[in-house]
Amino acid sequence: MKADIRTVLTAGLAALVAAAVGFLAWKQSARNALPAGIYAANGRVEANQVDIATKLAGRIIEVIPREGDMVEMGSVVARLDKDQLEAQFRQAEAEAQRARQALVAAEAQVVSRKAELTFADQEVKRSAALVDKGYTSREKMDQRQQQLASAEAALNAAIAQVDQAKAAVTAAGAQVEQSKTVLADATVKSPVRGRVQYRLIEPGAVLPAGGRIASVLDLSDVTMTIFLPAREAGRLTIGDEARVVLDAYPQYVFPAKVSFVAGEAQFTPKTVETSEEREKLMFRVKLQAPREMVKEIEDRVKTGLRGMAYVRTDRAAVWPAKLAPKLPS
After folding, report:
1. Which of 47, 151, 167, 265 is the Cys-Cys partner for 120 at CB 3.0 to 4.6 Å?
2. pLDDT tens digit string along 271-287?
């Protein structure tokens, strides 16, 4: 009899404990429940990886950043041997100087030809007056007219030479600018601000045009990619608010905004007929972190970090206190 009573009491106590645990779990679940209009999905941190390459073929004499270093936009990443390029630049400058001198000479020739033309014209006029008075022969007059025609032709030729010299100066100047650009390209600079992920070559390597030197993680565009059901994704617009909580930093809540919603579904069944099948439609959504915030915490930014994203699909929904932005100090 006593054994039966103990069994009943034990069973009753176990039931009370189970009920208490269930109640606490329900309360915790109620506290963790999201309000209507806010949807949760998991995702991972992503950032564009930019390959820095040389435009020129040549031997690398210096690679500056190490893996893990931060590089600024426009900062020098590597230098190529530019002895040959500098020689080509000097040659282009010399050709430009010669073209300018040729232009000066051609312009002086035009001045001389104009003077000759003026003199020949005056001779014709004098000869014409003398012929009318009978002081000179018609043959002399014809000679003067031929000299005038020759002077006109010489002037036109000199003017054409000036035009050619000007074109040569323009071409030589363009060659100098091209050589200057090529010389500048021997200093390879980073197109973005970011962290060096991989240093792909060392000094002494000979690269072809387009040869990669380093891979840099562009920290100006940090995003998290998530997938949402069609019903939730259809309510989103670019710029809607979101929150991100990373598994590696569960104590922080990072603000974000919707920057992209796919125009077509992923994981689409071949035939979509029923409501249940339509729920299988998933749309890719990107959440972008504010650039100012990323710059403050860039030492913590790592691609591939996973976490939970919370997207507000109803702008009237109020964010719960637990999703208030909280950033590392």
Report:
1. 151
2. 444 455 555 678 899 99
109's CB contacts (< 8 A; 6+ apart) are 158, 161, 162
pLDDT lower than 50: segments of the chain: 1-2, 20-31, 269-274
How close are the terminal C-alpha atoms of the chain, in Å?
A: 66
**How far apart (Å, rounded) are the C-alpha atoms in residues 172 and 103?**
12
Residue 99 half-sphere exposure toward CB, CA atoms < 13 A: 20
Cα separation, 243 vs 245, whole angstroms: 7
Instruction: Find tokens 């919707």 and name the residue.
Output: 258
Q: What is the pTM of this model?
A: 0.64
What is the gyration radius of the CA atoms in the chain, in angstroms?
A: 41
| Cα–Cα distance measured from residue 79 to residue 56, given in angstroms and rounded to the nearest whole number | 11
pLDDT of residue 7: 60
Say what the pLDDT of residue 298 is: 75
Fill in the amino acid letter for 45: V
CB-based contact 204:78 (threshold 8 Å): no
The DSSP result for 153-165, as a single string, is HHHHHHHHHHHHH
The span from the CA of 204 to the CA of 79, in Å, is 11
Q: Which of 197, 225, 226, 227 is nearest to 213 (CA)?
A: 197
DSSP state of 321: G
Residue 299 near residue 274 (C-beta atoms within 8 A):
no
* 62: phi then psi, degrees, rounded to nearest 5: -155, 135
Closest-CA residue to 79 (of 184, 173, 162, 220): 184
For residue 232, how many other CB atoms are within 10 A of its CB? 18
